[in-house]
């Protein structure tokens, strides 16, 4: 748990932070990129990991 890193997922279109997530940086070294719904763009966009 202590190795888990709190990350934010920001919309790649409007750059707003829409989701919070955790990842274990020992296990996941690649940047997280997820397709999620953005309520500001009103569509599914790519959400990229943003470090705190
Ligand atoms: Zn957006």
The count of DSSP E runs of length 2 or more, i.e. the number of strands, is 4
Biggest sheet layout: 4 strands, antiparallel
Radius of gyration: 11 Å
CATH H-level homologous superfamily name: Ribosomal protein L33
CATH fold-level name: Rubrerythrin, domain 2
Span from first to last CA?
A: 17 Å
Task: Give the fraction of residues assigned to helices.
Answer: under 10%
Average residue-wise pLDDT: 91
Strand content: over 45%
Widest beta sheet: strand line-up: 2-1-4-3
| Principal-axis shape | elongated
Instruction: Name the bound molecules.
Output: zinc ion
Characterise this structure.
- With 52 residues, the chain is mostly beta strands.
- The chain has one domain (4-51): Single Sheet (Rubrerythrin, domain 2).
- It is 0% helix and 60% strand.
- A four-stranded antiparallel beta sheet has the order 2-1-4-3, with no helix packed on it.
- It is elongated.
- The protein binds zinc ion.
Topology record:
Blueprint: E1 4-11, E2 17-24, E3 33-38, E4 43-51
Antiparallel strand pairs: 1-2, 1-4, 3-4
Bound molecules: zinc ion.
Zinc ion (ZN) binds at residues 11, 13-14, 16, 38, 40-41, 45.
List keywords for this structure.
52 residues; mainly beta; Rubrerythrin, domain 2; 4-stranded antiparallel sheet; 60% strand; binds zinc ion
Summarize it:
With 52 residues, the chain is an all-beta fold. Helices cover 0% and strands 60% of the residues. Bound molecules: zinc ion.
């Amino acid at each position: 748990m202590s190795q888990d890193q709190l990350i934010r997922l920001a919309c790649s279109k409007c750059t707003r932070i829409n989701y919070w997530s955790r990842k274990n940086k020992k296990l996941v070294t690649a940047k997280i990129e997820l397709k999620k719904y953005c309520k500001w763009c009103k569509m599914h966009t790519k959400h990229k990991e943003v470090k705190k």
